[in-house]
């Protein structure tokens, strides 16, 4: 029922195209008056700025495609950003709750968002959700293990987690690391760059700064540590010029085939040379399920 009401409201919202007047001022006044509470109830007045994806559109397309094949239920989107993914998931029929370190950037009217830090305990009760989406979040925080532990806490047994991270193990990124000592998504953050990010993002540099490179192996270890098992791997989209790397890819896969089977199982070799990882796009999307009681 909640998902249906959210979907109906969003349909009305996105048909609205007129001026909003001083709704942003009223929203700011409301935010100031309710500062002590961690819950931000977005104003019923339609905001002038629609939610824009902070991740690539192909990532959202993939995540929504995964969810549409699953039963509808209660979903937590963390971090929610401006609310672009939440809007699409609500339209698909899910009852969506949102949280973000910076709830003031959220742009979905009549959708509650709570202030939350993924490095801390989330402001939700145990076993509150059937689904959690964490898109382009883990690489921005200090402690991904804390976030995954909290996702396991707020999910019901058998619940689903869909998480994305920059794919630092595709063939292009492996070669960039070899040549430069860093990958495309995790370049050195100099003091000058950090200062520029603070200026560009109004002292919210966490939105843009990638500080925690997480590969498939590390992510799988953390997921399994907190009771998840991986249901499927996805990529946002194939690399446009992946064929240029085929000689290197073929060599890597030949070495994998020649590796003794027990070591391949122990080292997750098949997954590490899969199309989703080795030939993946910029982003690795992992669909994991929480083990039941």
Rg on CA atoms, Å: 20 Å
Could you tell me the number of beta strands?
A: 8
Q: Helix share of residues?
A: 25-40%
Element pattern in H and E = HHEHEHEEEHEHHHEHHHHE
Number of domains: 1
CATH superfamily: Vaccinia Virus protein VP39
Biggest sheet: strand arrangement: 1-4-3-2-5-6-8-7
Poorly predicted parts: 8-48
Largest sheet: 8 strands, mixed
> Structural class of the helix and strand makeup?
alpha/beta
- CATH architectural label: 3-Layer(aba) Sandwich
CATH topology name: Rossmann fold
Discrete helix count: 12
Global geometry: globular
Top-tier CATH class: Alpha Beta
Describe the structure.
The protein has an 8-stranded mixed beta sheet with strand order 1-4-3-2-5-6-8-7, sandwiched between helices. Strand 5, helix 5 and strand 6 form a beta-alpha-beta unit. It is built from 12 helices and 8 strands. Helix content is 39%, strand content 17%. It is of the alpha/beta class. It has a single domain, classed as Vaccinia Virus protein VP39 (Rossmann fold, 3-Layer(aba) Sandwich). It starts with a helix and ends with a strand.
């Amino acid at each position: 029922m909640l998902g249906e009401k959210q979907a109906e409201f969003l349909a009305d919202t996105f048909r609205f195209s007129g001026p909003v007047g001083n709704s942003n001022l009223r929203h700011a006044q409301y935010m100031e008056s309710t500062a002590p509470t961690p819950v931000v109830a977005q104003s019923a007045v339609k905001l002038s700025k629609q939610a824009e994806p902070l991740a690539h559109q192909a990532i959202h397309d993939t995540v929504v495609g995964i969810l549409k094949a699953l039963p509808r239920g209660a979903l937590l989107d963390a971090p929610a950003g401006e609310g672009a993914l939440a809007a699409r998931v609500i339209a698909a029929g899910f009852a969506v709750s949102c949280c973000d370190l910076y709830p003031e950037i959220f742009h979905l009217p009549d959708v509650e968002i709570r202030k939350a830090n993924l490095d801390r305990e989330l402001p939700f009760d145990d076993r509150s959700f059937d689904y959690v989406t964490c898109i382009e979040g883990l690489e921005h925080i200090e402690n991904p293990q804390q976030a995954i532990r909290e996702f396991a806490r707020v999910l019901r047994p058998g619940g689903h987690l869909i998480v994305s991270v920059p794919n630092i193990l595709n063939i292009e990124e492996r070669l960039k690391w070899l040549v430069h000592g860093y990958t495309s998504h995790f370049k050195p953050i100099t003091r000058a760059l950090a200062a520029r990010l603070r200026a560009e993002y109004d002292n919210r540099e966490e939105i843009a700064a990638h500080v925690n490179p997480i590969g498939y192996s590390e992510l799988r270890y953390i997921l399994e540590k907190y009771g998840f098992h991986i249901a499927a791997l996805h990529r946002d989209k194939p690399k446009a010029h992946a064929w240029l790397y085929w000689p290197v890819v073929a060599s890597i896969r030949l070495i994998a085939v020649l590796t003794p089977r027990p070591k391949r199982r122990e080292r997750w070799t098949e997954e590490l040379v899969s199309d989703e990882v080795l030939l993946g796009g910029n982003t690795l999307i992992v669909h994991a399920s929480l083990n039941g009681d």
